[in-house]
DNA sequence: ACTAAAAAGATTGTGCACAATATACTTGTA
DNA sequence: TACAAGTATATTGTGCACAATCTTTTTAGT
């Protein structure tokens, strides 16, 4: 068996069903992820945020003063993605990027007052997305659990 | 309730649990999708393909002569993504891009001999990814079904 | 103290995604 | 048969993701 789920029917499928788009788990995941991010767009552009910026702000709302390495660990992103993203968040006034005094290599990211204010504006976003998804909470939780398991297995 | 699944514990979570990264279904989906595409990378670079190019080739293996609009419909991508991607596939010699005779606006995409040969090289990829995922087939099928349902709901 | 190795970020380059817009062609309707 | 509206694709610009590489700083072993 393969990651492509087979449901053979006609001849062309019988030959290499694992290479049909409709049998690809990853394609479904990829399309759903793209679609979900697309659904966030109108809500987040009102806050002047992209989806990856919104995720980053979530970490900073929780852990102001975090460094880039830990941020990357939490978000599963590297400095090549985060450095320019953080510069854009800084340019918008939501965060500041300061060097650590103990270790000059380390960049610490702090929430600004404006960044703090953004959080209250963002509070209605999760509910709005839940409505758009039109899926029962139990199914969403199951989906989340499977994605987390898959991610953990791929990281091994 | 919201798309962020709550599992309240400490004080900071109790305030706005729906804005915690660990409660975001979309973040799990996004991270798992990125990780899966990352896992494909070493397998596909041996074929000189990226993951979106691989998906595109799947459609063309099945439907040589398809136009850009139908390709975009199948892949949930637009011409802004597909036009440059198809040009790269053409530059690699896997496809040709020809104008339709009946309607000069339409671009038809055909498989080349080299593109056909690529298919047999790709046949081992799905199995390899299935192994990397380390998830039972039933869970993968469930994951796929939920993603498809979510995508369909978001498209409405 | 000196230096090799390691660590933290930053930089560069490629390839998506996608919004917005532009261009070329086709079709329906007066 | 003009011509407005619609359609198919292409172009432009922004912001990720990520590999590869580089710089700066720290740490460890001598």
Describe this protein's structure.
Chain A is mainly alpha-helical and 156 residues long. The first copy, chain A, has three domains: 1-46, no CATH class; 50-123, Winged helix-like DNA-binding domain superfamily/Winged helix DNA-binding domain (Arc Repressor Mutant, subunit A, Orthogonal Bundle), CATH 1.10.10; 129-156. The first copy, chain A, has helices at residues 11-15, 25-45, 51-62, 68-75, 79-91, 113-122, 125-133, 137-155; strands at 66-67, 95-99, 107-111. In chain A, strands 1-3-2 form a three-stranded antiparallel β-sheet. In chain A, strand 2 (95-99) and strand 3 (107-111) form a beta hairpin. In chain A, helix 2 (25-45) packs across helix 7. In chain A, 34% of the residues are buried. The interface between A and B is large, with 65 and 65 residues. The structure holds a DNA duplex (30 and 30 nucleotides).
List keywords for this structure.
DNA-binding, mainly alpha, homodimer, 3 domains, 3-stranded antiparallel sheet, 62% helix, Arc Repressor Mutant, subunit A, 156 residues
Could you give the topology of this structure?
2 copies of one chain form a homodimer.
Chain A: H1 11-15, H2 25-45, H3 51-62, E1 66-67, H4 68-75, H5 79-91, E2 95-99, E3 107-111, H6 113-122, H7 125-133, H8 137-155
Antiparallel strand pairs in A: 1-3, 2-3
Chain A binds a DNA duplex (30 and 30 nucleotides) through helix 2, helix 3 and helix 5.
């Amino acid at each position: 068996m393969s990651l492509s789920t087979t449901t053979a029917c006609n001849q062309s499928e019988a030959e290499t069903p694992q290479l049909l788009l409709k049998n690809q788990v990853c394609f479904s995941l990829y399309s759903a992820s793209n679609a979900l991010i697309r659904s966030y767009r109108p809500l987040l552009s009102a806050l002047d945020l992209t989806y990856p910026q919104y995720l980053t702000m979530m970490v900073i709302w929780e852990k102001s003063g975090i460094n880039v390495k830990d941020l990357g660990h939490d978000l599963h992103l590297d400095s090549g993605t985060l450095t320019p993203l953080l510069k854009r968040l800084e340019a918008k006034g939501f965060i500041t990027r300061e060097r650590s005094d103990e270790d000059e290599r380390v960049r610490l990211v702090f929430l600004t007052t404006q960044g703090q204010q953004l959080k209250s504006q963002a509070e209605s976003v999760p509910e709005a997305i839940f409505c758009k998804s039109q899926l029962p909470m139990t199914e969403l939780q199951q989906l989340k659990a499977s994605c987390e398991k898959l991610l953990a297995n791929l990281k091994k």
